[in-house]
UniProtKB/TrEMBL annotation:
It comes from Spumella elongata. The chain crosses the membrane at residues 16-34, 41-62, 68-84. Its main location: membrane. It is found in: Membrane. This is ADP,ATP carrier protein. One of its GO terms (molecular function) is ATP:ADP antiporter activity. PANTHER family: ADP,ATP CARRIER PROTEIN 1, PTHR31187. Keywords: ATP-binding, Membrane, Nucleotide-binding, Transmembrane, Transmembrane helix, Transport. The keyword Oxidoreductase does not apply. GO terms for cellular component: membrane. It comes from the Eukaryota. The lineage of its organism: Eukaryota, Sar, Stramenopiles, Ochrophyta, Chrysophyceae. Belongs to the ADP/ATP translocase tlc family. InterPro entries: ADP_ATP_car_bac_type, MFS_trans_sf. It is a multi-pass membrane protein.
Length: 173
């Protein structure tokens, strides 16, 4: 974009799409999705969506694809994954809920942003010597794939534990 105003307008449009999409998903989709497949399986949608979006970005690296991937992943994260994370806390004691939420919100989120930024800094950094081919799709896909496998496994296990707690009508203390 040529001017700062154009950049601001573009980011404003992207944020508006994220907010509108999240509102629509939250109002019309989150409840039916969770009711039909459960909290555990709903938690698997974000890692799958992330993998598909990064895969699409690796195949067609552009600002448009990057923006579309960002919008889609943010809608899933805010509109489905965040409510599902909150539903997991129903089966925990107040102390566990406090510790888990504070850790995940303060450290978990910040660490993931840090790791993502480091990946882009060291692997996909824009520099004069590599322009216009600074994005390394193989390394990005490999790191993302490994991360999503770990993430998927953790989400799967949380889902299994949550289903068992629901079945037993138990609370983690």
């Amino acid at each position: 974009y040529d001017t700062r105003e154009d950049q601001i307008a573009f980011f404003g449009k992207v944020n508006m799409m994220i907010n509108c999409g999240t509102a629509v998903l939250t109002l019309l989709g989150t409840g039916p999705i969770v009711q039909s497949i459960g909290v555990g399986y709903s938690l698997l949608i974000l890692p799958i969506g992330m993998l598909l979006c990064i895969g699409a970005l690796c195949l067609h690296y552009s600002l448009g694809m990057s923006s579309a991937a960002l919008v889609l992943v943010c809608i899933i994260a805010y509109g489905l994954n965040s409510p599902c994370k909150e539903m997991l806390y129903v089966r925990t004691s107040r102390e566990i809920k406090y510790k888990a939420k504070s850790w995940s919100e303060m450290y978990g989120n910040q660490l993931m942003k840090l790791f993502g930024a480091q990946m882009n800094l060291w692997v996909n950094r824009e520099a004069a010597f590599c322009t216009p081919h600074c994005f390394h799709s193989g390394a990005t896909a490999g790191v993302t794939g490994a991360w999503v496998v770990l993430w998927f496994g953790i989400a799967w296990r949380l889902g299994v534990q949550h289903r068992q707690l629901e079945k037993d009508d138990a609370i983690v203390k």
